[in-house]
Automatic annotation (TrEMBL):
Lineage: superkingdom: Bacteria
Protein's name in the database: AAA-like domain-containing protein
InterPro entries: P-loop_NTPase
Species assigned in the record: Nonomuraea jiangxiensis
Listed Polar residues bias regions: 1-11
SUPFAM superfamilies documented for this protein: P-loop containing nucleoside triphosphate hydrolases (SSF52540)
Disordered: region residues: 1-21, 434-453
Amino acid sequence: MPGATHSSSPSGRRLGARGYGGRGGGRVPYVEAPPEWRGTTVQVCGLWPFGVGFSTPAIGVPLGRELTGGATLCCDPISWFARAGLIHNPSELVLGKPGLGKSTLVRRQVVGLAGYGVIPLVLGDLKPDYTDLIAAMGGQIIKLGRGLGALNVLDPGEVGAAAARLSGLDRERLLADAHGRRLNAVAALITIVRGRPVADTERTVLSAALRVLDERHHGVPILPDLIQVIDAGPDPVRAVTLARGSDERYRQVVDPLHASLLGLLDGPLGDTFARATTTPIRLDNPAGACIDISGIDEADQELQAAVLLACWSEGFGAIEAAHALADARLAPQRRFWVVLDELWRVLRAGRGLVDRVDALTRLNRQRGVGQAMITHTMSDLLALTEEADRLKARGFAERAGMIICGGLPEAELATLTQVVRMSAHEQRMIVDWSTPPSWDGARDRDGEPPGRGNFLVKVGGRPGIPVHVDLTPAELAVNDTNKRWSLPTTR
Ligand SMILES: Nc1ncnc2c1ncn2[C@@H]1O[C@H](COP(=O)(O)OP(=O)(O)OP(=O)(O)O)[C@@H](O)[C@H]1O
Ligand SMILES: [Mg+2]
């Protein structure tokens, strides 16, 4: 035992820290780390003075047991950033082969963080992976898609309500922010429909038309109202086109924009953006909100991208409004946990999405937003068509406060180790976890993948912490993402 007094055996051998040396002594060449258990001072005070401090961080959402010593690991980016100071920004990138439990790990963090008062926001649940959980916690579920619900990008939503409660400079700032956000959202939707960015003059026309709408329109405007303003061409809008009194010149400038806006209302995006918002996001629900966009077909990439962008615009607008109210001491300070699952699909869905995620990864600290990004492999991130997008996507991994790796194929490690240093032992562990499940002839189902629920938590070049996520019975009830496979089929 460490610390035991060295004494001599009757045979004259010396007892060292690893037993009796010499022939027949049974000296242990390798001392294994002892198993660890965690308890409160109330429960284990009787063991004093044998208690020791934790070898793993104990601040944050309990994830599971460390794989070698059995110590509890508590880990979530917001607690590790704000309370423990272990990481430099409140975000994580979760990587791993499909079905190994990435979404499950993040769902655990959603539950735990909600318990700490952090509001979970899933602004675009593509599968859906989070709807059952958020509904079970009493959060808000919003369904969007063709024939399901509409989202009006011109609706100021929570920002309007917050601005009404503010005054002076705070109000001006929030309204200016809301104006920029609406302008960006409309421009982004047009970019998706056209497949190329909006021209500078068109952006200026849109901005002027939105200001006219703000001044002259009663109630919440919708996109057809914006089209009407551009069509009528009031003076403030004409002025920015340099038409100088010529109607023909004005039409020349605004016609392409007019056509694209009409395409937004009745084109590939259906009527999702043409009507008033069916259910606005509300951020005063402590169980958060989940926008379920799983009703949109995977092949319908344009609509998927457009809805994602519009959801983010609305969600971040609401976050900005909550902060403005908190700064003016009109509401409590809130923190948010934004989940971007299936990041590879998000990034490939359309132009402009990489830039939005990029902005998000840079600004999360200022916005009081913690963020989880989930994807299968680094190669997914690097498979984007444009070189500039690939570099940005690589930046997501480099800037993430922590990287959590589940089982990965060996080919992936070359790229991954460029972003995060890993020992040979850690690399082997991750590849082992990606072993496929065994054939199980005895049961009428396949065995479970051996690496399911195992993750390595890496922060920079520090040694990783391997952990197994154990689900509680309450979680199992809202955790089946293999639903379509677990129900009995008709033979
Ligand atoms: N730690 C765990 N213990 C038991 N079952 C688990 C665990 N983690 C995940 N599962 C189960 O495995 C299945 C797949 O999990 P999950 O959806 O989290 O995987 P994923 O890595 O997000 O997959 P994908 O990449 O396809 O999104 C689910 O049915 C889930 O209930
Ligand atoms: Mg998943």
